[in-house]
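## tool: complex_structure
## caller: assistant
## args:
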Amino acid sequence: MNIKKPRGTSDILPAEIPAWRFVEEVCRRQAAIYGFSEIRFPTFECTELFARGVGGTTDIVQKEMYTFTDKDERSMTLRPEGTACVCRSVVENGLYAGALPLKLFYLSNFFRYEKPQAGRTREFFQFGCECFGPSTPQADAEAILLGDSVIRGLGIKGCVLHLNSIGCADCRPAYRAALKEYFASHYDELCDTCRSRLETNPLRILDCKSPVCSAIADGAPRTTDHLCENCRAHYEELKSILAQSGVEYVEDPRCVRGLDYYTGTVFEFVHGGIGAQSALGGGGRYNGLIAELGGPELPAIGFALGLSRLIMAMEAEKAPLPASGEGSLYIAPLGGDAVTAATLLCQQLRTRGVKCETDITGRSAKAQLKYADKSGHTYVAVIGTDELAAGKCELKNLRTGEKTIIALDADSLAAAIK
Ligand code: HAM
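## result:
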């Protein structure tokens, strides 16, 4: 039987790991710099969390969840996103009662039953950040600047921040009504999905990719023309902070995001060089979600970046990976006593924290040297009877070709491997 991985999933092979590790390290480093602590949460949650948290009219809840019934007849769902999970954890563990702002980040895998294409998979990885407590534009700016720092930290230059505000509970109903009236006057031209969205969530029509709906949406009323005084002032202040911080943005009235929990500020980091799935990440304010999940009124802002799309953008821009700074040694024994000596020496070096390998296959010196080079070792030392007798060996730097004679003991070798 030839078993293949499920459609829309990927193996991340050893050759790809350095890029993933680099991305994860930059995410962790920037999160720490901005004062965010890591949180981990279950891979599956009660289905109701996402139905209530993400919203019943969203594509995620309507079409994309991996939902199953467990042996106790409870409906469970593989996490399709992290915000609802973090909010559930904040409420369940009473984290809101501690020091505010509460700033949390996660690096996790998520699952959505979407049609796979470049940049869109059924299992994917996100770096997500959520900040609870402040409702200020400064908190919004901090979240956006953190996302921007990660993207810049990876060497990605061709990413544009799309910014919008979709208003709050005070101003959104009037905007929604204006939008509904506008789209109703184009009812016959809308696609079937948008016709049903007209009743359930007219804002999402602005996001429709069908050329006809998209052309109609171009003429739709803009959220930013319908903001209440608070939302307007908040949005203006945010734009001013971003401009002064040197973050370039475009105001995008069509940026409304596909999840129901957003209020006020919404944004996406869009890259032009990675195909149709061009959002490296996105987020926004969600001031009502904690209360919706049974907690207190607690404003929040957050975002998530898709790790595979960050890697795609780095590849598209040929952004270099930093060279590993750590040296490693391959000890090639020429047979006889040298084999045991190499094994013991290798072990002594490992206990000293040196990355080190020796032959465990019994193959020829030539084959060993080929292996040492292919596996990326920085140094090689060949040892035979002469080296053992002299208590010295030649240490060759495979990067520079430089050769040095060095005492054949773990301390001397460990000191020489940089
Ligand atoms: P989202 O826009 O659904 O937002 O996902 C954020 C990012 O995750 C996307 O921009 C994309 O890079 C990546 N992503 C999403 N779906 C896929 C997929 N099927 N394949 C590959 N990458 C994908 C959220 O998930 C919100 N929870 C973000 C947030 C946090 N809002 C506030 N806090």
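## assistant note: The mean pLDDT is 96. Residues 81-83, 112, 114, 119-121, 124, 126, 128, 130, 259, 279-284, 286, 302-304, 306, 308-309 surround histidyl-adenosine monophosphate (CB under 6 Å). Handing back to user.
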